[in-house]
Amino acid sequence: FRRVFLEKYFPESVRHAKEVEFMRLHQGGMTVSKYAMRFEHLARFYSQGIAEAWKCRKFVEGLKYELKRVVVPMAITEFPTLVEKAKIVERLEGSNHVTIVDEGPAGSKKGGGSQRKPYDRPQPQQGGPVIR
């Protein structure tokens, strides 16, 4: 039924383009939820049969590194479980990121702190007394 439906409503060129998009899909700027939705949408166009374990490996392969490094050691082979764990890690990583940004000297800015100039002593005005 699935094959007949796809052939009827999606020309071969569209199915092929969607399959290529699926094979190249990465999370990029998407949340895990959006990535999972896009992944499952495009997986329908994959011409080969998809085993659950392969689907999980493919999904993890496209995750951002920060999430992948935590999720890979879990060796999850059930797709819904994998997506839920990835969402949890994403949420935890997001809260850790905020904590790190809030720490530091008062007035420091994200990313700009290392490029600040050292403090320069004010120069005496011309004609005034020189203090040493």
From TrEMBL:
**Residue ranges of domain Retrotransposon gag in the record:** 1-64
**Known InterPro entries for this protein?**
Retrotrans_gag_dom
Q: Where is this region: Disordered?
A: 99-132
| Pfam families, alphabetized | Retrotrans_gag
Annotated protein name in UniProt: Retrotransposon gag domain-containing protein
